[in-house]
Amino acid sequence: MTAVSYAGIALALVATTAYNVGLILEKRALAQMPALDLRRPVPLVVALATSRAWLGGFALMLAGLACQTVVLALEPVSVVQPVLASGVVLVVVLSRLVLRERLRGGEAWCVAAIAVSVVLLALSAAGARASHVASPRAMAAVMIPSAAVGLLVAVRSLRGRQHGAGVAAVGCGAGTGLVYGVAALAIKALSGVLVRHQPAADIAIGLVSSPYLYALAGCLAAAMLTFQAGLQACRASIIIPVSAVAGSMYVMITATWLFHEHLPANPGELALRLAGIALATLVLIALSRQAPDQASGLPAGGAGTTPGYLADARRRYGS
Questions:
Q1: How much is the pLDDT for 113?
Q2: Which of 18, 97, 211, 247 has the fewest CB atoms within 10 Å, counting from its CB?
């Protein structure tokens, strides 16, 4: 392994640490806010934008995303993604130490399996060739229903139409992960404008005139606001990993078809991809089937006592 690879691994560690610590800081700030109401988006945005603690976590998360973008451009996915996936472990540790969340035995194994599935999916893409061309009609046919279904699942979960806080965390995480995945498809389509090596003015015109730019903005805004409401009402140690694996799995499956990217020709890489998808699916099913008393979201030191912010959020969403 070269010195550049070691530097890439170090930057990946910085990226995943900053990103996940930022999410934990957001969660802690959300605990001090009134319940976020998705039916009133303007007050929701104002509440977030006027919270210094939340803005600090958000800024740290954005810094982590920037570092991820840089390191993925410098190093192979097979080297970087396993390091980034280790952030799931950091989320679990920090949610226990900072947020006083507790995972039961079965939930802890499920979260660990999520990290493994993300690594398997990343390793399966190690030798993949990137494509940036897709049919606009096919993209619309996939992106629009996916975004609608993702938002519907996330909002219904927050409103308590399914039993148990753990189930709500899985539903909201999977739903927002789906919408984030649609945003990733838009980014991939937009990257086709950037790889044409055109003059800067032509690139700017191409980006502004592309419908994918506005699809990206809409999906990111909707996913972020919904995810923040879910992060306030659900345990970070569940909703963050579930959202990550749902988004990764969605992009891996849909992009292969939309952008005509072939499945791995290497039998080993194909097996890794299929295993990653199967493991992620089984984990999501297992988490969603947790009994309510195993997914109550109660803090470690408060058996039988629900935090005020969580009770407020549950009342708001009708659970």
A1: 84
A2: 97
